[in-house]
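Technical note accompanying the year-one report. For the benefit of new consortium partners, we illustrate the data format agreed upon in the data management plan: each record pairs a sequence with a structure-token string. No post-processing was applied to the example shown here.
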Amino acid sequence: MTLRLRLFHALLIAGIFLSLTMVSALADEPYARSKDYDLRDIRAHLWFDLDQRGIRGEVTEEIAALRDDVADLKLDSLGLAIESVTVDGKAAKFSTTASDLLISLARPAKRGEQHELFIRYEGHPKKGLYFILPDHNYPGQPQEVWTQGEAEDTRNYIPLYDYPNDRLTSEMLLTVPANWITISNGSLLSVKAEPDGTKTWDWKQSEPLSSYLISAIAGDFVEKEDSWRGIPLRYVVPRGQESKIDTSFSHTKEMLDLFSDKLGVAYPWSQYSQTFVDDFVEGGMENTSATTLTVRELVNPALASENRTGADFVESHELSHQWFGDLVTCKDWANLLLNEGFATYFEHYWTEQHYGADEAAYEFWREQGRWFREKRLYTIPIVYHNFSDSDENAGNIYTKGGWVLKMLRQKLGDVDFFRALHGYLETNRGQNVVTADLEKAIEQATAVDTDKFFHQWVYRAGAPQFQVSYSYDDAAHQLKLNVSQTQKAEGLVGVFDVDLDVEVTTASGKKTYPIEVIQASQRFTFPADSAPQMVLFDKGDQILKALDFKKSPAELIYQLQHADAVPDRADAAEALGNVKDNSDVLAALGEAVQRDPFWGIRVESLRALGKIGGSNAEQAIFPATNDDKPWVRQVAVEQLGNFKEDSSLASKLGKIAADEKAYRVRAAALGALAEIKAPDAYSILTAATKSNSPDNVIRDAAVQALGRLDDNRAVPLLLEWSRTGEDMHTRQVAMLSLSRLDKQNKEITKTLISYLHEPYFDVTFWDLFAIGARGDTDAIGPLEDLLKSDDVTASQKTMIEEQIAALKSRSDESHN
């Protein structure tokens, strides 16, 4: 599963930050259950009532008792009306609770005894299965029905054992309108015409999977078929999005080649389909052999040249899950590292192999900074059972998990790392695992004991926070390096034991010294024939850490200009952004903006110049508006928004907004015009809302910029763009802009509240954030009323509770 995190990144760009728990669902079980029976196979047949957004289902389930004297079977079932149950063809007694279906066997079963259950039911799922349908607001919306099972939501449309510590084969029959297509797990066995004009599609998954990985998608989609090494590939998009297929799926085969060959484990399923759906509740979901993705990640051909990696992040993430998460699956949600940590790591591995090592190093460097900013996660280990939502500590599971695997590869070396992963996958193929199984596989494959590594990085919390300084003894020709770990050692956070490299550069050249840091405070001594020009602690950024290494501007400039590794140059650029009134710093950053061979360093240098400010910094930024990379030009223009004192800047930004060939750079210029409060910004932005561009990039940027302009004249226009019936993404941006304006206007709050009753996930998600960002305590009452209604899905419930708590906290603060 991907990224709720990507949605949060979008909110951070929009200037809004709220807790990750705001998108949590109802409580997930942190520990694997003890089981009375093994669910071995299901055969589900679903019919859809589009008018009532309901389902009718029949499911046949084969079970085997795991102990003697099993008299009753408990199945997970939420909101399903059970019509009848048979066991081995005979009517059976059953009862239901709010969360379970209880089936009584005619007599207690013995261990190993098998039974066949048949259940007929109907329901109107609030979760698990979703209807995306045209209505009077959006008559052009293609009809779609799709499922999302993780974490424990398959039970909302099929009664079954619904926890990852069981594996079953499955068959999915979907009876749908004749002009629809369907996608599910495994192989398509047949498509049968029914007497009533519908068709029944029969999909069979012959290899066992966990219940949350079951998928069903049906609707008005367009499919492009392909193949890879004899395995069918399916690229599926909603009708109307066909032009984006080739640009969105351009690297699928190369990813399959890379992962299969490097792991030494061939892609393990009978097909691979990737389906983009509307209003998806995640960024992507790795359903076995049948990934589901959000249309937000589709790549418009007109924007492809401006999109550095296209849909590669989400596609590589979900594809790698087909091995890590699907072929081998975590036993419980506390061990989700084994799914999501690997998927995150292989995003970066794809980047490294396809785009280059510098690109991957830069990605890791940026994620390191983001993880340390999520301070709540610091005292929580990766393997952790104290949660209510399996995604609650996503920054640890995804970001830190990916970093831990990066460090593991560094520790083992490439040959042993991939040998270990091969052994782990082959040994545990088709099994449920815990993190100890990964440790065991590594030791068996490499003879390297990693107990200490996992204890420190996975079962305990935090990461080292280093304070480093050095002195040079000219007489002794020695460099003395003082290293302190400043993290507070308490709870599950301790003093770290890490191996890293120190690079010392003098006039005679560079030398690298490996050291082991094992104490809270240590001193290391290195030979140096002259005073150092550059000292790098953890050369190349190989260890997840925070580093406080005070250096003079001259040292940082030298590092920016001469360090080999991208993270070391990025560190220097970032640090130079804190140096004011230094012409040498401005010159060095300006030189990096124009000359550094890696675009990421040009970007970090631009951000440093934007932070420093002043006319000289502004002039140093301008050359980058002609950079050959549009994403660098975009950052350059964004940074120009920091220079409000330049009266001539407005016309220059206006020209970029009108003439720049890259749409996203033009969009950035609109945002910068708002930031500098250009005299004619309002008229430019309102005019831009009427312009046409691919995926409405220009219009949406103008709508967002109107909020940043802080001009209340924009409120009527933003209210219009936020209205039901307008483009979904434009509405979301308009809501966020409204959250910033005319704070005393109660009608804005009422309007935002009214949108919460709409059946569109994306609208609800962004609208709740807009309400929270607005901070109007008048929203508390309506939100509490909404919480009590039947209009709230389970996931929305927790989001609303979080907003109410935040608004009440603000209310208390205002009265103190």
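Partners are asked to follow this layout when depositing records. Residues 226 and 233 are 5 Å apart (CA to CA).
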